[in-house]
Amino acid sequence: MKLKRIFRHFLTGDIAVQRTFPAASMAAIAAAIKASELGHDGEICFAVEASMNTLPLLKNVSARERALEVFSQLRVWDTARNNGVLIYLLLADHDVEIVADRGIHAVVGNAGWELICREMEAYFRRGEFESGVIAGIQAIGNHLQQAFPTTQQGGDNELPDTPHVL
């Protein structure tokens, strides 16, 4: 199984991200994040990675562990109200992970994030990657809107809305 995963990562190059998420899809995802954030004071970040490097693969780093690293690297945890949420997609593993800061995670919990991931994966199985990500953004936005509604002074956009390609 481990060897199979290593080969899958070696065979999944950066072109896979461009094929899966062309420029128009990335623009639509950025627009969905921006629109969602108008309705709440939370922050949503989307990151996609074709494959992991050799060393993490040999150490058998899971997609979840990698998502936690990306959460830290992109500073999604560094929001004023602890309400940043990362959607991380690792194409080689066909895996989507959601990592949320403690403020919103306390409200939604693991089961809530897992449900959103499964819904996104249903879109992905049909080849509807852009729609799946946007559905995930909307579902996360609904949780953020309930827990962190827009304040009268309006929240600052603390994180960029543009997707990250790693």
Explain what the structure shows.
There is one protein chain. By secondary structure, this protein is α/β, with parallel strands linked by helices. Helix content is 54%, strand content 13%. It contains seven helices and four strands, in the order H-H-H-E-H-H-E-E-H-H-E. The protein has helices at residues 2-11, 15-20, 23-37, 54-58, 63-73, 102-125, 129-147; strands at residues 43-49, 84-90, 95-100, 164-165. Strands 3-2-1-4 form a four-stranded mixed beta sheet, sandwiched between helices. Strand 2 and strand 3 form a beta hairpin. Helix 3 runs parallel beside helix 7 and helix 6 (102-125) packs antiparallel against helix 7 (129-147). The radius of gyration is 16 Å and the shape is globular. It starts with a helix and ends with a strand. The mean pLDDT is 94.
Specify the overall morphology: globular
Number of helices: 7
Structural class: alpha/beta
Please summarize the sheet with the most strands: 4 strands, mixed
Give the averaged pLDDT, no decimals. Answer: 94
Secondary structure: elements and pairs:
Layout: H1 2-11, H2 15-20, H3 23-37, E1 43-49, H4 54-58, H5 63-73, E2 84-90, E3 95-100, H6 102-125, H7 129-147, E4 164-165
Parallel strand pairs: 1-2, 1-4
Antiparallel strand pairs: 2-3
Helix pairs in contact: 3-7, 6-7
